[in-house]
Specification:
Number of helices: 0
Radius of gyration: 13 Å
Distance between the termini: 40 Å
Structural class: mainly beta
Shape: globular
Helix content: under 10%
Oligomer: single chain
Length: 122
């Protein structure tokens, strides 16, 4: 079992930045590909980005490419999502997930965190 806990969400103005963290316990994250996903009110959960086991490879949704960056520190058992140049349409609950496949898509997450709210004001 892997327990994932996201943190770092909050309220930010458009154009601002946030850094989300996803801390794992139970098993080492180095055995898993990781993904970030988000769900806005009334919408389905959608893919944001994913990173492979070593952190060498990443993949992003077109809507966030060039603005968001995923990284991981396996020694700290933590994955990060840097959100820059935020837009009101980025407002959502952000979730991290762990799985065995890369790229990790929404239906492939084995373990999920509880989510952290990101709200971007215009």
């Amino acid at each position: 079992q892997v327990q994932l806990v996201e943190s770092g969400g909050g309220l930010v103005q458009a154009g601002g930045s946030l850094r989300l963290s996803c801390a794992a316990s139970g098993r080492t994250l180095s055995n898993y590909a990781m993904g970030w996903f988000r769900q806005a009110p009334g919408k389905e959960r959608e893919f944001v980005g994913t990173i492979n086991l070593t952190g060498r490879y990443t993949n992003y949704a077109d809507s966030v490419k060039g603005r968001f960056t995923i990284s991981r520190d396996n020694a700290k058992n933590t994955v990060y999502l840097q959100l820059n140049t935020l837009k009101p349409e980025d407002t959502a609950v952000y979730y991290c997930a762990a799985g065995v496949k890369f790229p990790l898509m929404v239906n492939e997450g084995q373990y999920w965190g509880q989510g952290t709210q990101v709200t971007v004001s215009s």
